[in-house]
Amino acid sequence: MKFSKRSEKLTSSPLYVFFRKVKEAEAAGKKIISLGVGEPFQDTPENIKQAGIEAIKAGKTKYNPAAGSTALRKKMAEKYQVSIEQVVTSNGAKPFLGSIFWSLVDEGEIVYLAAPVYPPFFAIAESCDAKVVLIDTKPTEFKLTLKALKEAVENNDNGKPAHLLVNSPNNPTGVVSDKEELEKIVRFCKENNITLISDECYSQFSPDPSFSLRQIDPKVIVINSFSKAYGMTGWRLGYVVCPAELAVALTRYLDNYVGCASSISDAAAITALDSEPLEDFVEQRKIIHQWLAEHQIPFSPSTGGIFIFPDFKPVIEKLNLSGSMELAAYFLEKAEVATTPGIAFGEAYDTHLRISYSIKIEELKEALEKLDKVMIKN
Asked: Rounded CA gap, 31 and 367, in Å?
């Protein structure tokens, strides 16, 4: 069977390959504590679940418009103080990565991404024929700076339209970009006709949950979802706030490729918007910072989101392992603790692990104690 060249650009990242190993270990009867999962441990709040149940009972089980129900979009528009024509919903945030790049990017146009990078960002942009340029943020404690962006633009500008995807709080680092630096980046993009896309899916877990890049420039395209803020990962409901003319193109994409999101999830989301979102993982963040410091494992502090991205190079060397895949496999086998290999986020980060601390405090402490027993301490 012949496959298209486009299909070859979407590959299974080490992130997903490794988590098949985790599932195999669980199937073999091992009790794995996961520090790898990218979702809050809390269940969906009861009132939101009840709203979904009531929607089923009321017969809200038919198709919605591809962009979402008028009721939900109107409520979202009020939240962001925009017109309803600027809001589109879909089944999670990922469809908007595809639809935005599909709508905006022609062959050879540049998409700038801050590295380490969430794998689908790179894969989806490249599959839309973009020229992806990675900007290494490790030298600046995983914060994207105007200086680094300027250097990337100077070295790669090919005269074609360009795009920048910002992800703050960041996956995999947990770093929240400085507002002052973001303001400079937004102005630079505006002056240089660089389309700015802001993935704010972890914004609830940050020093200022109400902050959005749209507050700096209303033309910024914002992607977000109900998944993290309301513990609704399995409900699959995301949204975009963008210029109305782009919303038209995104809706066409959804009409043809995706269809509508679940009408039941749509109804539950309306209730979610009137509910208190989940609390930030402040205590878990303190615990993981302290543990890393005690073991002298280099790390940039996580100031938001649910992840941290420490450099385990000293541990890898003492255990005589080859990199992050072997270290993650070692922790999985010896400690029954799942982490995420850093190489999944770029080859330059093969000594790092992504650690998710969005679990119960007692489980986090137990996992770290298990790692203590199998890790050679500095």
From this structure: 11
Map out the domains of the chain as residue ranges: 5-43+279-374, 46-272
Mean pLDDT of the chain: 95
Q: Which fold has domain 46-272?
A: Aspartate Aminotransferase; domain 2 (3.40.640)
Nearest-angstrom CA–CA distance, 155 and 43: 46
* C-alpha 86, offset from chain centre: 22
Answer whether 228's CB lies under 8 Å from 93's CB. Answer: no
377 pLDDT exceeds 60?
Answer: no
5-43+279-374 in CATH: which number?
3.90.1150.10
Task: Give the other-Cβ count within 10 Å of 71's Cβ.
Answer: 13
The angle, 0 to 180 degrees and rounded to 10, between the axes of the packed helices 282-294 and 361-374 is 10
170 token code pair: 């960041």
Residue 33: strand pairing partners: 337
Question: String of b and e for 95-105 (b: at least 16 CB within 10 Å)?
Answer: bbbbbbbbbbb
Residue 200 amino acid letter: E
- Mean local confidence (pLDDT), 188-202: 97
Q: How many Å separate Cα 310 from the centre of its chain?
A: 18
